[in-house]
Known about the structure:
Elements: E1 2-8, E2 15-21, E3 31-34, E4 38-44, H1 48-59, H2 64-72, E5 81-87, E6 92-96, E7 105-109, E8 112-117, H3 123-134, H4 140-153, E9 163-169, E10 177-181, H5 187-207, H6 219-223
Antiparallel strand pairs: 1-2, 1-8, 2-9, 3-4, 4-5, 5-6, 7-8, 9-10
Amino acid sequence: MTFSIVARCPRSGQFGVAAATAMPAVGKLLSHAAAGVGAVATQAQVNPYLGLDGLQLLRQGLSAEQALERLKGTDPCMELRQCALIDAQGDSVCWTGEQCLPWAGSLSGEQFSIQGNRLVGPQVLEAVAETFRREARRPLIERLIEALDAGDRCGGDRHGESSAVIYVVDKEDYPLWDIRVDHHLDPVAELRRLHKVFARDVLPEILAMPTRENPAGLAAEDAV
């Protein structure tokens, strides 16, 4: 009941997950990413541990393909699941169980994977991929927004969308962007609006927060 994209930006090294679905609160359990490690999207009949354990396997140095093979052995209902992973090298892989609602499938490219189930057709994934590639010079957050919008305009979920999410990690353990629309008549448009609000009011605060290299953050500079 979802279409999503997991991606890595080769310029910044950022990882991101973006998704939209007909169900409320898609961002609660679908999106998983860790700085310098990779990203995972788990959807269809969601098993959150595919995301949590998938990241842990990537942290151990497994490739996306190796991690997926390990995950398959942990879940007796994989035929109900759809799960995509991208690793630190930008290699991606996606599993689509045979019992996922049609149309279901995936499309991978350089440093991204796009996947969906209960879609109007494969043209949704093709529209997402085309836009993501075309916007390659823009920051990852903007590429994800444009790509998600393209999938939405192409038909997206057969039942329409009511929630959307974009989750991006940079160099810290906490996210650079975590924008969620849990229930809205036009969640992708609302996501775009919130991105502007976050860019103005939230991002400067995030960039001033403590980092591993600078535990005081910019507060120390303000105190001088």
